[in-house]
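Module 6 notes. Inverse folding takes a fixed backbone as the condition and produces residue identities as the prediction. Think of it as a translation problem where the source language is geometry and the target language is the twenty amino acids. Below is one complete input and output pair. Work through it position by position during the lab.
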């Protein structure tokens, strides 16, 4: 039994980190060995409907795949929960955006209609139509032709009653459909969340989860998706003759202040292999994190043509001696966008059907910066 458990854990770990761990200089296992698990090859996660349809304020979030509930799938979710527990213990962050409907189930908070609206605004609109008591027969028959089944986040269909796919929703039963559909959508990832909780409980006491809010557990495991430049500058170090008063260093911080938040995150990922920084000074010190800026190794008359380089294992950035802020900004944007596209498995067409669309968006965004 002991050897079986070891082999199973190893196989799970290989499947979890196998496809998205090709991050430039291969960061150390202690800092970033398992922080991005969104690979389509695993089918543990799928884009939320609001992500797919570019709706609402949660267009970049993922959710657990409702149909992934085989014994092996649930074992994988349990292992993912174990890794989340390691994040709580060690301060390592997952680069993972989950909606409140997931985090609330992990900590045991009650779910509301607002949680489903974040996940799938269109579904909530449909449910409200069916629950509307004022709708008349003509409106119902002309616009609400549904059977007793519902589409889940991964576009699989679930019957709400036995043989529901073949039973039309009548005007008299529309409220029943609304209640059943709401319940099915809110609970579509119940088994997966239970497995996650089981995995986390192997690393931290279950009682701890029950005392945290869903916002707190998300911040502990995933960090904040914003960059505090003042905090980062306090923990920046300079090497080989560079100081905070060096021209290229000044240019760098000015450019960082001008970049949109998405590009700031890409700079951090380019330099460190992960997007989420420590949340405060104490966490920087506890995790012994510092950001090092140093001059480029290769120098010469064509140095300004070179792109910045990074040592992701050590959170180091090599900056050539750019003579202007505009040149630094142009080269930095080229570097982070090329790195982000080529090293991110989400942008692999074999793994993500939207990869080409994402790349076109990246190219348009890059061109807009360079104009």
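Target side of the pair, the amino acids:
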């Amino acid at each position: 039994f002991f050897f079986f458990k070891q082999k199973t854990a190893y196989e799970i770990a290989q499947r979890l980190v196998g496809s998205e761990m090709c991050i430039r200089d291969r960061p150390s296992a202690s800092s970033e060995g398992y922080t991005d698990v969104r690979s389509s090859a695993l089918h543990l996660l799928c884009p939320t409907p609001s992500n797919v349809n570019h709706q609402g304020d949660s267009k970049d979030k993922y959710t657990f795949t409702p149909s992934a509930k085989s014994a092996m799938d649930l074992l994988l979710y349990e292992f993912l929960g174990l890794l989340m527990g390691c994040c709580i213990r060690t301060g390592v962050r997952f680069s993972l955006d989950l909606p409140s409907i997931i985090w609330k189930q992990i900590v045991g908070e009650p779910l509301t209609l607002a949680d489903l609206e974040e996940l799938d605004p269109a579904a909530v609109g449909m449910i409200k139509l069916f629950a509307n008591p004022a709708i008349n027969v003509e409106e119902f028959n002309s616009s609400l032709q549904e059977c007793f089944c519902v589409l889940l986040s991964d576009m699989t269909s679930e019957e709400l009653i036995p043989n529901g796919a073949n039973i039309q929703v009548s005007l008299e039963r529309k409220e029943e459909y609304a209640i059943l559909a709401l319940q099915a959508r809110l609970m579509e990832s119940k088994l997966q969340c239970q497995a996650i909780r089981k995995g986390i409980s192997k690393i931290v006491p279950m009682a701890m989860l029950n005392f945290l809010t869903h916002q707190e557990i998300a911040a502990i495991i995933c960090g904040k998706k914003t960059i505090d430049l003042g905090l980062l500058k306090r923990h920046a170090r300079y090497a080989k003759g560079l100081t905070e008063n060096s021209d290229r260093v000044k240019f760098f911080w000015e450019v960082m202040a001008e970049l949109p938040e998405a590009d700031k995150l890409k700079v951090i990922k380019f330099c460190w292999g992960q997007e989420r920084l420590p949340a405060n000074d104490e966490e920087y010190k506890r995790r012994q994190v510092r950001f090092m800026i140093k001059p480029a190794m290769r120098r010469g008359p064509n140095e300004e043509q070179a792109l910045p380089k990074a040592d992701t294992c050590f959170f180091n950035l090599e900056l050539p001696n750019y003579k202007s802020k505009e040149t630094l900004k142009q080269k930095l944007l080229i570097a982070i966008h090329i790195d982000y596209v080529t090293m991110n498995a989400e942008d692999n067409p074999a793994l993500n059907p939207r990869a080409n669309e994402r790349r076109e968006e990246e190219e348009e965004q890059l061109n807009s910066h360079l104009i």
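Reference fact for the lab report: The longest helix spans residues 71-90.
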